[in-house]
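Now for one specimen:
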Amino acid sequence: MNFTRLAARFALVLSLGLVTGAPAMAGGLQCVPFARQLSGIAIRGNANTWWSQAEGRYARGRTPRIGAVLTFAAIRSMRLGHVAMVSRIVSDREVLLTHANWSRRGGIERDVRAVDVSDAGDWSAVRVWFGRIGGLGTTVYPIKGFIYADSAPEPDAADLPATPAQPARLRPTLGPDDARGIYTLVTPTDY
């Protein structure tokens, strides 16, 4: 057997192994370990405990920042809450989130829309893009606030740059986009 054939067989066996391993990994990915790894915020436990655990350890607030973790309150359909990292700020009432285990069990979604729908414009309630319907979901989720990865106090809005630089690890990747060009669904092996 020549080297080329041997290399081709090895590549085939390796690719089959990767393909069969991906669904098992995808089924177990949860929002908490993903947000912890992506943001660097070292909090453990269910998502609905992150806000209280962050008190005294991390700065918290109601202003979105790139790299901050948005903490969702627990509700009947989401008993353990949810956490997602802000990957981009679109406007004062819209951000893009990167998170796991939302539209598809164990899946990762990058740069999906989250819109502040609170009456006061204080990020206390949001609607989030949902893959199965291909747009913003109809559920309004109560929000506890943002946890900031650095422990610095929350700056005034006037101190924030108009277009904050996006860290390289958060830049969007190429992939299937929706009509607005802001959604990419990837599997854990793609990330």
The helical segments are 3-28, 31-39, 50-54. Residues 10-27, 152-191 have pLDDT under 50 and may be disordered.
